């Protein structure tokens, strides 16, 4: 992976948006410099958007976001497959960097490299606000925390903010996967909250 996400502290922010808008994220370094912007790659028709506004909406829909530099250079694609089983992180030309494979929905995810070899795992706390990335050898690689923004913001908007602390040195592709954990977990666990 390039040096774009080399900072040991990252912030991932999802701006507020309306129910018909696409998923968007900003990735910043610890100083607040924008490193990457992510936008959903597929557009939804009105019926698909409406079904996400009403209670009972499942978070099992397929979604993909393309991460680019602020200048528009493609970096990565985070592709959450239909269902809750698999999320791929790919290079723009299609090569798989790694995958997040669900072991226990909302609680534990296996992190695998492009050859499907287990390189780590993500452990999730009960409220889905803290995510520990652990290497296959058992060492702590990163801590991702979803920040509490207050009850009204939590219930009525899509505005989510995450902090990502990476405990370097972490070998590739595990480091890239750790950096993408906030977006992956948001797509898998928090994106069903689309009422604004």
Automatic annotation (TrEMBL):
Source taxon at top rank: Bacteria
InterPro entries in the cross-refs: Scramblase, Tubby-like_C
Protein name, UniProt field: Phospholipid scramblase-related protein
Native species: Actinomadura fibrosa
